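Escalated from tier 1: zinc ion holo job.
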Amino acid sequence: MRFAIAVLSAAALAGCGGGPYAQQEREVKSQVAQYFNSLNAEAALMAIDAKATRSVADAPSLGRTMNTYDWRIDGYVVPDVTCPDGKCKAKLGTLAYTGVDLKCPACGAALADEINRLGRSLPMFEIRSGSALPIVVIVRYVRKVGVYDPSSTVSVTARTQEAIPVESFTGRDRRDPRNYYAGGFHRPDSAFIGTTGFVYKGGELRQIDPASVGKMTAMPPENVAVSAMKLGPTAAVEKPLRTWASIAPAPTVEKAPE
Ligand SMILES: [Zn+2]
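Tier 2 regenerated the structure:
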């Protein structure tokens, strides 16, 4: 089955706009949330579409890669975290908090105290225009990329097949008579920390060009006047998110043969 999908852009989510600051602040918060919700809703449809496919040739009409986004209004990103546990000390790299308490993936130590101590968390939603209008926000998020994989199969023994006839739910994989096809899916591939920005004007979120976002988030940050920004649908600034599990061990120096 194919799903027709309307591409929801930030512009399609226009609110009223033009009200007093407090009202516009509420609108910006809700529109940024809707921005990520609609992107994730597209991904959810892609996942359903992938599940209905049966071979590489029958790849989802929506594409082979699927993006899902982790974002929340009180979320934050913390660079360069090292596990505080004396015995562990795992270098965890950049971590993102989106509502789930952060723990060291190596030893399970809670990281909240350490993150507070570091004091360099970058908020996922940051108003950069003070109390002036138009409201300018910097938005940070995690983008997870999944790659379409049609080869999801489940091996079922003859005995199980006798007790629970799965054939009525799924097709048999032609390559191996014991395997049953379980639908395609998107295999987790890579993740990125993204930084972008929006100007809220006339009830619409207008995305800020990556060069301006780069200046605004540099150390130390630079102020960019709205009139100097290029606004419109544009690219975000993204950096690969290397999770702890994917960091390659330090190269070992090979001993010359004796
Ligand atoms: Zn640890």
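The CA atoms of residues 248 and 254 lie 16 Å apart.
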